[in-house]
Amino acid sequence: MKPITVRGVRSVDIELNEPGRAAEFYANTWNLTEIERSGESIWFRGTASHHHILAIHRSRGPAALRRITFDAADRDIVDALHKKVVESGCAAESPHEISVPGEGYGFGFADVENRNLAIVCDARDHSAPADVSDRPRKIAHININAAQIEKTNRFFTEVLGFRCVDHSGPLYFLHCDNSDHSSIVTGQTGKPTLNHVSFEMPDLESCMRGGGRMRDAGYPIEWGPGRHGAGNNVFCYFAGPEEFPIEYTAEVLQIDDGYEFHGPDYWKWPPGRLDRWGITPPHTARWKRIQDMVFFTSGSYRLSCSPF
Ligand SMILES: [Fe+2]
């Protein structure tokens, strides 16, 4: 029997000191579309159907990750996952009708390392999604860092139903109920921080054009372009406004239940090589710093508590 799990990342809520300035960037340079604004919060959609994929809120402290929201197929799955989260001992609110933008039915909870997560279905999504060249579709994956990697991986696999499909270097690639190779990637750094948020472009050309547009706007490529081993996706990594770590990706490997797991001995390059093509220079010092810099906020996991 297939495990009960989510269908991937719906959206991410982030907190920045200058949300207005960041909103200009995410609309005009990163190429998302603003769909809602209330006070100092701004919501953006991609070209896929999700109501929004990014929400920016005002931070009173450093840049932070407020919440990762996962998509569920229906209310039965939301309820079943809620039961498993509660049984695991993690704090969770009961599933309910949601009144924040996007609406739907779901619940917020804090995971084993106190990350605020949510699972939502029946959101007010957009009809007739269609790719647009050079504009992100959706969040491809979120890479998080863990203080206790085994505990974190156990939670995602045994409670939330993800399957670990690859393990490369320090990274574990977690697949759920969609065809994307992975929707969550975990790695151990000793701190429960964000590594990066990855936005999926419709094709390789868009990923490259996005890289050029970012450079023109004063956001150089911090790592890439290149093609990863596990997941086979093309990548360009950047420090967005307030050095928030973001990625353009494309051509994510599509898999099914027959996909075979490989470990770190398999995902090895010759010395000095960092991607499949062998063209990417090493990560910049800035990228190394910012990929372990952004913490989850310590505010309430409840979806109705906004702002905290
Ligand atoms: Fe990534």
Can you describe what's shown?
The longest helix has 13 residues, at 75-87. Helices cover 17% and strands 32% of the residues. The chain folds into 2 domains: 9-124, Roll (2,3-Dihydroxybiphenyl 1,2-Dioxygenase, domain 1); 138-290, 2,3-Dihydroxybiphenyl 1,2-Dioxygenase, domain 1 (Roll), CATH 3.10.180. The protein is an alpha+beta fold and 308 residues long. It has helices at residues 19-28, 75-87, 149-159, 204-216, 285-290; strands at 9-16, 33-38, 41-45, 54-58, 64-71, 96-97, 105-110, 116-121, 138-146, 163-168, 171-175, 184-188, 193-200, 223-227, 234-239, 245-250, 294-296. Strand 2 and strand 3 (41-45) form a beta hairpin. It has 5 helices and 17 strands. The mean pLDDT is 96. The protein starts with 8 loop residues before the first strand and ends in a 12-residue tail after the last strand. It has a 17-stranded mixed beta sheet that branches.
